[in-house]
Design a protein that fits this description.
The complex is a heterodimer of chains A (about 1300) and B (about 350).
Chain A lengths: L1 H16 L2 H8 L5 E4 L23 H10 L2 H13 L13 H30 L2 E6 L2 E6 L8 E5 L7 E7 L5 E5 L1 H4 L4 E5 L10 H5 L3 E5 L11 E5 L5 E3 L4 E2 L4 E3 L3 E8 L5 H5 L9 H34 L17 H12 L7 H18 L13 E2 L11 E6 L6 E12 L2 E3 L15 H8 L5 H13 L4 E5 L2 E5 L3 H12 L2 E7 L2 E6 L2 E11 L7 E7 L5 E7 L1 H6 L8 H13 L2 E11 L1 H16 L4 H12 L4 E12 L3 H10 L3 E5 L4 H10 L9 E4 L4 H15 L7 E8 H7 L2 H12 L1 E7 L3 H15 L2 E6 L5 H6 L2 E5 L6 H5 L2 E3 L4 H41 L10 H11 L2 H9 L5 H6 L4 H6 L5 H25 L14 H23 L2 E2 L1 H21 L15 H7 L1 H28 L3 H10 L7 H12 L1 H7 L4 H19 L17 H4 L40 H12 L14 E2 L14 E6 L2 E8 L4 E8 ...
Parallel strand pairs in A: 15-27, 15-31, 27-30, 28-29, 29-30, 31-32, 32-33
Antiparallel strand pairs in A: 1-8, 2-3, 2-4, 4-13, 5-11, 5-13, 6-7, 6-12, 8-9, 9-10, 14-33, 16-17, 16-26, 18-19, 20-21, 21-22, 22-23, 23-24, 24-25, 25-26, 35-36, 36-39, 37-38, 37-40, 40-41
Chain B lengths: L2 H6 L17 E2 L4 H27 L3 E5 L5 H8 L9 E8 L3 E2 L3 E7 L6 H5 L3 H4 L27 H4 L5 E7 L5 E3 L2 E2 L6 H7 L8 H4 L29 H7 L7 E8 L8 E2 L2 E8 L10 E7 L9 H27 L10
Antiparallel strand pairs in B: 2-12, 3-11, 4-10, 5-9, 5-12, 6-7, 6-11, 8-9
Helix pairs in contact in B: 2-10
The chains are: A alpha+beta (about 1300), B alpha+beta (about 350).
Organism (chain B): Muntiacus reevesi
Keywords (chain B): Glycoprotein, Membrane, Transmembrane, Transmembrane helix
Pfam family, one (chain B): CDC50
Amino acid sequence: MSRTCSLLWGLSDVEEKMGLRQSLQGADVPQARTIYLNEPLRNTFCENSISTAKYSKWSFLPRYLYLQFSKTANAFFLFITVLQQIPDVSPTGKYTTLVPLLVILVISGIKEIVEDYKRHMADKLVNSKNTIVLRQNAWQMILWKEVNVGDIVKATNGQFLPADMVLISSSEPQATCFVATSNLDGETNLKIRQALSETAAMKTEKQLSSLSGKIKCEGPNFHFNSFVGTLYLNSESPISIGPDQILLRGTQLKNTEWILGIVVYTGFETKFMQNAVKSPLKRSKVEKVTNMQILVLFLLLLVMSLVSCVGAILWRDRYRAEPWYIGKKDYDYHSFGFDLLVFIILYHNLIPISLLVTLEIVKYIQALFINWDEDMHFKGSNVCAMARTSNLNEELGQVEYLFSDKTGTLTCNIMTFKKCSVAGIMYGQSPCSISDSYEFNDPALLQNFENDHPTREYIKEFLTLLCVCHTVFPEREGNNISYQASSPDEAALVKGAKKLGFVFTARMPNSVTIEAMGEELTFEILNVLEFSSNRKRMSIIVRTPEGQLRLYCKGADSVIYERLSENSLFVEETLVHLENFAKEGLRTLCVAYTDLTEIEYEQWLVMYKKASTVVQDRIQSLEDCYDRIEQKFLLLGATAIEDRLQARVPETITSLLKANIKIWVLTGDKQETAINIAYSCKLLSGEMPRIQLNANSLEATQQMINQNCQDLGALLGKENDLALIVDGKTLKYALHVEVKKSFLNLALSCRTVLCCRLSPLQKAEIVDVVKKQVKAITLAIGDGANDVGMIQTAHVGVGISGNEGMLATNNSDYAIAQFSYLEKLLLVHGTWNYFRVTKCILYCFYKNVVLYIIELWFAIVNGFSGQIIFERWCISLYNVIFTSLPPFTLGIFERCCSQESLLRYPQLYRISQTGDIFNIKVLWIQSINAIVHSFILFWLPAKMLEHDMVSQGGYTTDYLFLGNFIYTYVVVTVCLKAGLETLSWNKFTHFAIWGSIMIWLGFFAVYSSLWPTVAVAPEMTGQVNMALMCPHFWLGFFIVPIVCLIQNVAWKSIRNTCHRTLLEDVREMESSGVQVLRRDSARRWLETQDAPEVQAHGARAGGPGAARGEARRGRAGRSSARWEGVGVRAGCSPPLTQSRRILPVREANATPDAPPVECGTPGHPDLGGDGVTGFERVGARTDAGATRALEARHRPSLPLCTPLQPQVSRSAAGGYGERRRRSKLAAVLRGDAQLGLLETNSRRTRLLRVWKFPDSSGGQPASSAGVSTHTMRSGPQGRLSPGAQLWVFACEERAGPRTHLLADP
Amino acid sequence: MKRKSQDCKSRLPDNSAMKQQQLPAFRLQLSANEILSGFFATGVFCLGMGVILLLSAKSIREIEINYTEKCASCAKLREDATNFDKECNCSVSFYLPQKMEGNVYLYYKLYGFYQNLYRYILSRSNIQLVGTDVKDVRNCAPFKTSDEGLPIAPCGAIANSLFNDTFVLLYNFNSSTQIKVPMVRTATAWWTDKYVKFQNPTYQNLSHAFEGTAKPPNWPKPVYELDEEDPRNNGFINDDFIVWMRTAAFPTFKKLHRRLHRIDSFTEGLPAGSYSFIINYNFPVSKFQGQKALVLSTLTWSGGSSLFLGLAYLVTGAVTLLAFFSMMAVHLKLKERKTFFLQ
């Protein structure tokens, strides 16, 4: 049984590829199962041992080969290998394709084995854990894998549970227990589980052994929070089992001594394993284009083969028959088909055999780079970015549409109770200022409560409701109470109530205890009507201490307002307040209650009991049942909860918008809230016109859309500075077939689109529609279970590993911890990976075409007989050894420009986004270039050796001599071409390029001296001596690659002169000597800036409000200061006390008040000075000019910031390029200033010197009067380390630090 | 389950240059000056090399005597394979206007003979030729075995079609005396061929070694009689045979046949004057519209006449310089824009 299970599991991956899985899931409703207690199993269920591995020992070879040969390219090479076995058909021997193919299969096989071995080890570890099970009336220690369905398991505190089971009893009173479910859903709070009262007493072995009966329950599924089952104990009425009694595999027992449970699902049928499904396989656009190109090459191969066949016929025609010297007797079977096979084998290497495995490895390493990125490591939760798939790496560079969830993605999902409205009176801070304190702190509420305000009772009821109506669980530690809640909103409300004196102190299974203003009250809980996203509310039926039956309810305003009784008061006022709250971007909930009569309740209870034992559709019938009693509410008021924006969200969004990525926000939240969040994250601006679509019918929607389309007129279809806001209901109509087209036209003409109140399905639908309509790459980012649909639908799915569980992360392609990391993921990793992968692919095509077209040229002079010009093994090792390294360095280390530039000029993203550097046209250009190269590479040496007497001894040569010449030149040219393509050469690049050439020469030497000692390559004997001694070889060695490549250099130069792109401009600026500080130190500093604890420092500088405002301004300043002209970036204002943390102070002499090194991207300082004549050096253009020129040329932008202007410039004498130690520094500084000199190199930052200046302006506020000029006439003391940069920073008490790059010493 | 231990330590990735993709890298970014000077240097270098190569090629003396037409009657005779045992000689005289100084090499040159045909090249047995197994004829089709079923040695199409014209060069010392120009028939093959790749089977007597094998059908005599005067030039290690076995890359090719033995009046080389070749015409070419020629040539430091290589350098140099000048012009024009070339 277990074998079939694991086999099925293993196959799942294949099924997904074939798209079977979804249809299976849809069709296959799992059967309900019956488990008989204490009886031998009547049915066979899955065993508890799991295998997440893809292969087993036995299935590895067949399965691996099947997977590999289902790739077209590999199948093609297999086909060629088979063809080569036909006698006499192969000009290249029998095994020359087989061997490289084997090498490649072995390499990727090793990769598979390593990955699978890890999985096997992990499985083994899990399967061989111990657990205690009741067997033969006694407790026995067995391994996890031996656990069966129906077993009674005993688990103790801290243990992980081996299977899904129904809780029977526990050590705790009322048979409760606590479990940590963070492995399953990522939620950190403990969950409470309670056994049925009927089984709670069964604790001893004897009792358990005598237990008889059965459990009927639904079949295995992947819903964590649902379980439907019924327990039939002998001679008792059936009892319903719900999710409260279920303990899941993978959860950990906490705060409970022991529990007993009956296993219901094991192994792969547990919910934990059912959830661990891989997301569907996605293929990147580049991959598709590549497949297309392979097809093109295949066609080229066919054409070449046909041409050669025709050539052979013509040649034979000319010579009537075969000439005498060939001896024609045995060779009469020269048919056209036979020739065709010969030529297909001859040219088959046009298709790069190593491309697939090269790409696989390259992308694997690129994914590692993403995982390793320090900048995407979130300290808060200690989570790194994770690339869960590596085949979409380059797709990250092409994203055009970004679909973002709001809650938890743009915001922190950390809720704070901010405001409330009770009985028509609004409490909380005045709405005009965005408050900066974190919690609700309006004393008016309590004053009204204590001073017998007319609304006193309402206030009391309101706060009581907040204390009682929830599913929060308190944890006591001494006098402190902390709350464990699955919903952050609830926790916020309970905490808010606690602060107001209504403290929720204890939860018993059937009661909650609160302390209302010191008075202890216990509410008996009769029923909890759970929250679901469908119901949008939760209620609780309690018996108050006074004995009154009452239903408390809190939920979304729309559902509460539907259920208000006519007697309800303050309806209008509360509605106004709700709108106000929503406008401030707060999340609102309405709270209401209703009193129940005993009869009413009794009647309802009967219904409830009936509904809760239904096996099929229990949830639906329960909801219907809840609906009956949630009626005639009396409104108490509303609460408002703030969900703060995540750090750097507005900057990230601004940056992404600049990168021409269109951002759509898809949220389930209210329209007003969504709009407000959109404002605060700079997605919307004040002057941006908005189109709002809110309609109730198809006709209205259609009319509205058409009207708007008409208004736009000619602007339709272009990108306008417009915002479109749609709600879920309207969207339902808008996506109808007849309206869809015009709706999309409208939506795609807007810069920003907000969709509110969407269901998860609608989110996925929108993504799907846009994906199909515009054929652009889409990216969806979200953190919750409701985003899974769109994450899987979009080309690239990004999950935020946040507070809402692991579901989104587990279904995503890339998981990051913060929205702001998207900037780095897309702009840096995406662009780099795109450049890398495309260059790697183009280069692989190029090098294959170059070498193998030469066979065609040779065919022209050898009568199309199919003879190869190279030694056969040289041909097949070409891709595997001699030119295998340059594609790797291109694919792994190539950098089009530095990450600082990519982040500073998001416009660079468009290069990869448009895909201009990789399409069929580019491939053709590259192929034609390759054909030209191969033409030169063949005919130049051919003409050179035409006279056959090239060595000094007068010896004549043979065809292979020519072949080795050509082969050497090909390897040199191809490697140098890789060098020309490489924009940034590191040590690996050098190794790859020079190393490849050396490897070939070394191989050539060894290979030529093997025969006859080793029985290979008799033709090669002595070739190396003759070739290397031949002057013509070296003469050609220089001229041939030069002739090939000089045209590329010239072409590139001309293009870069006449048709310059942003990339070249940026690269030029980069190489003009302007380097920036290592980004990581900068980023760390930014993080400390935004972290909450920083604000504590703010208190010193003028109250919490000021501090936060400061911080915000700082953030805003940073983004806009990027374009600040003279390259001085301003606005960051950390308190000085923090600085030590930031500056990596490693030198003992660093002064304590050394200011922090500023953030990553100083502009280009005006290095030119007066004395420099620019022409010679790249960096001659003044920076301000360059920046402006860039701006003007590529996109107008926003130099908003007007920072203080510390002018730090070098004197005219010390122009750039002169390596002078001494120079004059002049700084215009305000106030009490310090000026320092820093030296940085790639490893460290060293403070060289600090100058302090007295406050010459006498402490005046910042004004022109306070400006003083300071001049220093000394350089840094001590030696500078090589390769270091000098920085000058100015630090002013008020304005914060500035850094300024001085020069490259 | 395993997470616990990971949770404790910080998962902050290594701050190494490699992992953070901060490896120091040289940018391939050339300024206008570098590009222009690069072009200029390349151009000048190529021009210079071109001139040197052309000059050295000019210093070569070379004369080619095509005897296809001149020996037409012999050619006619050879077209009929049944006449294989009939001798046919013809004489071709020519005049050497300038003397050929230094080493002089005699090549034969074939036009239209495809030694590079796939099946032709394939048809040989290297194992046989290295002397280990004389009867290995596996790849030699269609010349594997003789009609009697004996394995052919040397087998295969290449060996079978061995060029077998023989030449005697006569120098007309004066109007009456003709001197036979002394020629060396060894050291015309590569060292590795002669001593590594081609080996006679180890037997006291060469003819015994080839017992049980047949001669190639086109050969008048068996392999062990190729050069009965010199045992080091007989059998598989016969220089003429070895030279032929290196199959040429093009249908028109030359092969080294003899070297001038620089003794007596030929110590300086070949003096100017009139010469004649006495050709023993055996090798049929007219069947495939081929032609035969003889080439006498001297060499320079770089080998034979390489007009092409010199021209290639010259043209490359010229084109590069042209590109340099035009780019320079563009550059000067755009100087105020400070435009840079590569990347």
